[in-house]
Amino acid sequence: MMILHVGASGLVGRLVLERLLAAPEVVSVVAPSRRALAVQHPKLRNPLVDFDALDPDADWWAADAVICTLGTTLAEAGSKEAFRRVDFDYPLLVARLARWKDAGAYALNSALGANARSLFFYNRVKGELETALAAVDYPSLTFVRPGLIDGVRIPPRPGEGRMLALSRLLRPLLPKQWRPSRAEKIADALVAAAVQARPGRRVIAARQLA
User: What superfamily does domain 2-208 belong to in CATH?
Assistant: First the structure.
């Protein structure tokens, strides 16, 4: 398989990339990014791109499956408009261009509470993206919906770090769906969804990632 992986520089994205490069079923990984990745591997192709000006004729769109771990925070993005561009516009555009080249599977790192009708902006954008992706008509479509992600971020997010420390302390007392989602389990779920490409649409809930 050839896998197109966008968002390979983030916490979950790095773990996804490690797994794809080690998977015997995967012969090629294309990971477009703004800046060169720190990883080099015979299977890996890392085209440098501007996500605001993606080339629809690039040969690497012709993948078997897509994994999207693109994402930011409102604080990092600086505005709701910038956040929506990264967390909605880019993943949807990637999905459309890859599907145009006959990609058959798409796996998205979404979020707990994703709902297009949510009163919370973050959850609403995630839900709107899921709805828009469903309309792209992938034969295999998977939404992985983690809660607070348990892993080491580079650079760290201080606010998230404090919440994570408290959640780890309370883990035994929390219902499974509210426990931190382990970054490794999220990556495993995304890679399995892309490689197995089971027909239909499915959701992997936070309680399965704790």
Answer: NAD(P)-binding Rossmann-like Domain (3.40.50.720)
